Amino acid sequence: MSSYMTGAQATIAQVAAEGVRVVFGIPGVHTLPLCDAVLEHARLRFLHGRHEQGIAFMANGYARACGEIALSLVITGPGVTNSLTPLADAYLDSVPMVLVASQVARERRGRGAFHELKDQAGVLASVCKWSTCVERVEAVPDAIRAAFEQAYGGRPGPTAVEIPVDVQSQEGWVDIHPSARPERRQAPADAIREAVQVLAGAASPLVYVGRGAALSGCTDELVRLIELLDAPCITTPLARGVIPGRHPLNASWGGPRSGGVREFLQGADVVLVVGSSLDEADAAWAGFDAEKLVQIDICPEMIGRSYPVSVGLVGDARAVLQQVLAELPPGPLLRRTEMAARVAEGRERTLREAEGSLYWPYIEAIQRALPQDAIVTNDGSQANYRGTVPYLERDLPHTFQVTRMAAALGFALPAALGAKVAFPERPVVAIAGDGGFLFTAFSLSSAVQHGLNVAAVVFNNDAYGIIRRLQTERHGREVGAALRNPDFVRLAEASGARGLRAETPEQLHEMLAAALTHDAPTLIDVPI
Q: What's the predicted TM-score (pTM) here?
């Protein structure tokens, strides 16, 4: 049934119809009608921030945590350009997002209007999976619905809809559509039979799991499959928790570059890849040299993109694994009683190596403080690459968030706020280096204002540590890597948060455990 609405009202009505509960935004002169329209929907919550990069990272972290979309609402020009890094991160790491941006009035376009970019549509297209600009009010619901369908469909990613200022105020008859989610896609039956034949004939199979498995929610199917195959399983950082960290066949301990992981890869004659595009961050180091590779991916373009495959299965990871399990013979295919023991021995060996590293005592302290359902967000930093990625274990999907392919600084804190909005009852911890934390430190004010009681752990070495190390190793000197930081404890207190300093791993454990039950945001400065 048609309703008479303004373009802004139609935009937000369709957003609400898509099941959105949260809008992240900063009101601006070009989005006044859109922001006002949010108030007409009781179920919608509007949370504002201090910078659009933080706003969009909040939406990014929200989607990573719960798999649902929170709308990002930004102004023309600088609002769009400030959002680009979180959108690019979402595109590279397959995170569903929808951004609604204002655009200058149609009659002012190309005539030097306030905030106007040379090519805003082109800017958005460079980092989004799909984008469009709406030219009339009647087309608004279709555009919003298409944005959500594209964001969720196939390989998930960010989408954008531009709403010109005059279209926001224009009135017309519109039809608000019910939400439509894509169905789980199955692989062709003949390809399933071929894959099962390869897996059943393997002497040393291995299962390699990426983010697509986390998105599809296939933990039960994966656990059943690796136990049937008696196969070690390696999860990429974006899939951590899909297989419980201490499962006897989880061989991921030590991170993707560890000797133990390489040993299992080199010993496999068949590798089943589930939901990983095998991109540079996750697979360039691996050297998949198995005789046969079976790859499951929702996106046909990912099959065989990085490595030749014996069998490609295009479809949703959970649906395809259900097909595979239905074709496999019942009972364990292999009875190698030593496999679990080999995985355990590899974990112990890696642990002995880790005990001599700089970050291990601190990561172990964090691990002891975390409840099972706690969500951890990570910046691109030494604390991430040398600490949390190799050694932090999680037992549930979507409880370990890391900006992987973009490796963007400034992700951890606002992403943690987004995760806390998605799950207010669960503990959320942001882990960052000092350099990356300062990219979006202003998000502390948003955490205080909106009552988002996250804990932020800042590993502080007064430098862009990775860059300083690489400069010294490759050139024998450094430039631009040293930092003169603020007093992080006082910075937190000035924002209304609690500031602490942990001089030892045990102090970090005690402070973090207490912070997770505290009723205000907490920043823990860790000099290292």
A: 0.94
